[in-house]
Structure formats: C-alpha cells, structure tokens
Write a structure and sequence with these properties.
The protein is mainly α. The chain is built from 6 helices and no strands. It starts with a helix and ends with a helix.
C-alpha cells in the first residue's frame, strides 16, 4: 500500500508540473493579447491548443488526485491499525477515526494533522511515542495541503471582484497566474506527502522487525 501511494504521489507531482507549464503558456498568450499580438490567426491557434492541453492535463489531475485521496485514506487506516498492533499505548485515534476526521467540517482543519502526527511518532517509537517530538516536515506538509485546498476559493473571490471593475484582460491573466501558484502548491504537497509516507512506512517496517526479533530471541 505504501509503494502504491508513493507511485501515485509521484504521478501527482509530475501532472502538477505539466499543469503549471500549461498555465504559464496561457499567461504568455494573454500577455501577448494585451500587448497586441502580430497575428490574430496564430493567437487563436495558440489559445485553442493550450486550452486543449489544459483540459487534458486537468482531467488527468482530477483522476490522479482522486486516486491519491482514496489510497491515502486506505493507507492511513492500515498504518493506524499497525501502530495499535505494534503495542503503542494511550493512542488517541482509532483506525476508523484516523480517516473519519477528514470528513468532519471545521475539525478537518487540524484533526487529520494530529492523526498523522500521532501516526509518525508511534511508528517511530511505539513504546515511548508520547515523549517524542515531531518534526517540521509534518507542519510543512499540512500547511501546504491547506493552502492547496483554499487557493481556489481565494482566486474565485478575487476574480469576482475584478470582474466588477470591468477589466477584460486582468482576470484572464490572473487566472493563469493563480493556476501556476496552485500547481506549485500541489507539487509541494505531493513531494512532502511522499517524504512523509516513505518515512512512516520505514518506521513501521523497522518496528515490525524489532518486534519479531524480540519474539524469536
């Protein structure tokens, strides 16, 4: 499960790179439109081709992100069940609630972070996890993920404000710039999640080895 999730996160990172590149190209087209493009026919062809690229990449992005969400939820459930099996004491979250908190409004702004923090600490040190300290990778991952989720809402609100002012080109250009930032956040979130998943998987493999060594010692 960890390996499947890692491959999906790699795919998500690559698609976000392509998505950002498409937005950069479209921003250049809009900028050329503002400054007076030498050929209207070439302008139309460039716009159509880039919109097609954006559509295809956007569809792939939606499919891969859906896959990441499903596999990440399954992975979280199983890894949480593992830390219970490894003998960690006084755990706050059950496997069911480790996933369930993602679907509770408002609480899903911080509870999933606490779930993964507990998962990290208990995987690294099942016996003494309560006295262990988490690392900045967890905070960076969760902050980037929240920014990735909320940027579309911010961009829509800002676009609505600009549309009232009646500027035809500024909203078009800013949409593409927001798209570049969105792609950068998605890339960052995918990379940080990849590192997170890899480390937790390694921690649990090491803990399982220690547990088996103790049994057969």
């Amino acid at each position: 499960m960890t390996q499947w999730l890692r491959w999906l996160l790699i795919a998500a990172a690559l698609i976000h790179i392509f998505y950002g590149a498409c937005n950069v190209l479209q921003a250049l087209v809009v900028s050329a439109m503002v400054n007076g493009f030498p050929s209207q026919l070439l302008l139309a062809a460039s716009t159509t081709a880039n919109e097609l690229r954006e559509g295809v990449v956007g569809m792939l992005l939606a499919i891969v992100c859906f896959g990441v969400v499903v596999v990440f939820a399954t992975w979280t459930y199983r890894m949480n069940a593992n830390i219970h099996a490894l003998g960690s004491n006084n755990l706050r979250y059950t496997p069911g609630w480790a996933v369930g908190w993602y679907f509770v409004p408002i609480a899903n702004l911080w509870k999933p972070y606490q779930v993964v923090r507990e998962l990290w600490l208990a995987s690294k040190d099942p016996a003494g996890w309560q006295t262990a300290r988490s690392i900045k990778l967890l905070s960076w991952w969760w902050t980037t993920w929240l920014a990735y989720l909320f940027l579309p809402l911010v961009s829509v609100a800002y676009m609505m404000r600009l549309s009232v002012e009646g500027d035809a080109f500024s909203p078009l250009l800013l949409i593409e710039l927001f798209g570049v930032v969105y792609a950068a956040l998605g890339l960052g979130a995918a990379i940080l999640a990849y590192l997170l998943v890899t480390k937790i998987g390694a921690f649990q493999a090491q803990a399982a080895d220690r547990s088996l060594s103790a049994v057969f010692a």
